[in-house]
């Protein structure tokens, strides 16, 4: 079997218009209004969509999950991937792609290319980012340091890898593109912590998949901005016990979904609640 060094971190993205003096004032005003609307619609400040039709080059390897505990943990903090709804359709990203964990939850489509011996023709897989493949600077980028910068590298469970290539391929050239995530049910909020320290894991996110901002609100508070702890774990210091909790989450494409009173007044740490979902 192909062997390679791999290190996972576990558990722990106006034109100027001059009115012609001979034009009637009403017509000039109408033209200015139409142009203003058009330019604001295509404003460069609008966030790019998460889905891209362009394929990019990368490489992919796999790991063999011989122990059920291998599906637990990961640098995104999702815990048990099966219980979280991700199963084995997951991937760990190299440092060049991981964005320090902000991209956790995003979805990619991968296909095998350029090797007729090992590729399974006409196939592709869709995976969700749940982990990080750490660099191994004891090796060169071509000689075993698969996840070293600037390599774009994907590490897949062997069951996912074998959907696009034969396992003997080892370090396989692939193409990838970012796509929208499709999830069943709503966005899930797992509340942990102690006392006034509240930590919330956000999972099962459709659409862009990755969350860039979170606000939380109790019935006795206004909207409070949460900070990213790691992966998709968000935290705040606030006394929110004995009051229903609402969440406002914003994904990387700029869309925001608000879920009111997701957790009831008698919520406890360790519980998971389901809110509204992004469109996919």
Protein model, in words:
- It is a single chain.
- The protein is mainly beta and 280 residues long.
- The chain contains three helices and 16 strands.
- It has helices at residues 25-41, 95-98, 158-161; strands spanning 7-8, 56-63, 90-93, 107-112, 125-134, 153-157, 172-179, 188-194, 197-203, 211-218, 224-225, 227-230, 233-237, 245-251, 256-263, 271-274.
- Strands 2-6-3-5-4-7 form a six-stranded mixed beta barrel. Strands 12-13-9-8-16 form a five-stranded antiparallel beta sheet, with no helix packed on it. The protein has a four-stranded antiparallel beta sheet with strand order 11-10-14-15, with no helix packed on it.
- A hairpin with a 4-residue loop joins strand 14 (245-251) and strand 15 (256-263).
- The relative contact order is 0.18.
- Mean pLDDT is 82; it is low at 1-49.
């Amino acid at each position: 079997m192909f062997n390679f060094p791999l290190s996972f971190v576990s558990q722990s993205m106006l034109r100027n218009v001059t009115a012609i003096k001979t034009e009637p004032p009403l017509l000039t005003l109408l033209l200015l209004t139409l142009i203003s609307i058009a330019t604001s619609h295509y404003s460069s400040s609008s966030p790019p969509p998460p889905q891209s039709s362009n394929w990019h080059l990368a490489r992919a390897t796999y790991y063999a999950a011989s122990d059920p505990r291998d599906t637990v943990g990961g640098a995104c903090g999702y815990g048990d991937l099966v219980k979280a709804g991700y199963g084995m359709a997951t991937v760990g990203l190299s440092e060049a792609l991981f964005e320090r964990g902000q991209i956790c939850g995003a979805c990619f489509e991968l296909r095998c290319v350029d090797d007729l011996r090992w590729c399974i023709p006409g196939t592709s897989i869709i995976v969700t980012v749940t982990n990080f493949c750490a660099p191994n600077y004891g090796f060169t980028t071509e000689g075993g340091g698969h996840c070293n910068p600037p390599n774009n590298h994907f590490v897949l469970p062997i069951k996912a890898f074998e959907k696009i290539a034969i396992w003997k391929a080892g370090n396989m050239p692939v193409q990838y593109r970012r796509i929208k995530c499709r999830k069943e049910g709503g966005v899930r909020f797992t509340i942990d912590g102690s006392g006034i320290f509240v930590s919330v894991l956000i999972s099962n996110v459709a659409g862009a998949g990755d969350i860039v901002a979170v606000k939380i609100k109790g019935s006795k508070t206004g909207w409070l901005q949460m900070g990213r702890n790691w992966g998709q774990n968000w935290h705040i210091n606030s006394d929110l016990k004995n009051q229903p909790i609402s969440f406002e989450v914003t994904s990387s494409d700029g869309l925001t979904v608000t879920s009111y009173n997701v957790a009831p007044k008698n919520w406890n740490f360790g519980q998971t609640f389901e809110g509204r979902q992004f469109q996919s």
